[in-house]
Amino acid sequence: MTVPPAVPDKLQILEVIETVLGWPPAGPHVPPADIALSLLTQLTAHGQVLARDLEAQCASVFEDSPAVGGARHTLGEAGRRLPLPLPDGPDHAVVHRAQNVARLVQALLRAVGRVGEEQARGARPEPVSPAGRPVTLRGRRGE
Question: What is the pTM of this model?
Fold first, then answer.
């Protein structure tokens, strides 16, 4: 049984992002693939957690909110790029992928912040009847 990697906290991930984006994209000073893969794994795990949190946040504000629109776009990118298998190539290819994921995690963090601000302004109201009573939404039997 493999144990999933620990997800770093926000301060740790910000340090990882800064480190990864500070790497040269090519040349003699590119870090070895094992170091890049280790940080890529951390970024990916954190990105997946952020994406799940962002999806839940989006459900609590109006769908037509500009913050939700941007978040949905970022979630689409995350859904396409985070599940990709780890690269198995030269050091510079691994560094390039780690830098791309670092930028994606930055975008997820920004989206979480924007949707959080939208939440603070007022969460999605509960549906009410014309008489002002809360409405309970029920599915049909068998659904």
Answer: 0.78
